[in-house]
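Sanity check. The docking grid for ribose-5-phosphate depends on where the pocket ends up, so I'm generating a full predicted complex first rather than guessing from homology. Inputs follow.
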Amino acid sequence: MDWGKQNRLARVMGTGKTVMLAVDHGYFQGPTTGLENPGKTIAPLLPYADSVMLTRGVLRTSVDAASEKPVVLRVSGGASILKELSDEGVTTSIEEALRLNASAVAVSIFVGGDHEKESLMNLAKLVDEGERYGMPVLAVTAVGREMNRDARYLALACRIAAEMGAQVVKTYHCEDFRRVVDSCPVPVVIAGGKKTPERDALELAAKAMADGASGVDMGRNIFQSADPVGMIRAVRSVVHEGASAAEAFSALEGRTKGQGPAPSSSPG
Ligand code: R5P
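Predicted complex below; grid placement will be based on this.
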């Protein structure tokens, strides 16, 4: 791997464990709850994220250009929640990703979806361009309403993403998640999914880490929390310090009640 690509990947995956802050939801669902004013949401969370995943529109309008936080640039889209979600194309060129100083680009694949082939070809095209310019590619295994989020399906989707050349894969946690990680030759990070109680989201993160995940790419369970900063710090303590969900939750609760210490995890 060329130095530039190695350097970009190291900025995103760092020590091999990562807390990626996902704030790209608007690319298909518009002003998502908690992201109505993206700049306001992102700024206080950024110090605690290892990288931030977002579109060029939100990056340019809502993130300070002096920020040194590694950017994972969402470059697939073209569908909205009003239409067939798998009908995506590549929306942002590799030159634009380089201009924006992205550390990686992210593209969704829809294995089993109506536009499975197009989405896999989007990934293939980005991997080719990424190899040419030294840009790592993160494949997002998007799951349609009709798809099972079980280990068999997710292992299939993750493995295909890795075989196509993705350097990192993002997927969902599931029962027997170890099988998904073990059959995927590149690091796997998990999405948080829909907002759940904080304790449950921390359990999810802890289980994923115990099952071999390389971290989280989490959005709604952080920015829709009543205490987004407390929550990202709690997630950080699970991912980077091996805190249990109970420990992280108790620190979060203590912070909320203004009683105990905040989760000890410091900004990345
Ligand atoms: C899809 O909307 C995006 O790729 C999100 O970044 C992804 O779903 C992770 O966010 P969340 O933790 O909210 O599921």
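Relevant for the grid: The longest helix spans residues 116-133.
Also worth noting: The first strand starts at residue 18 and ends at 22.
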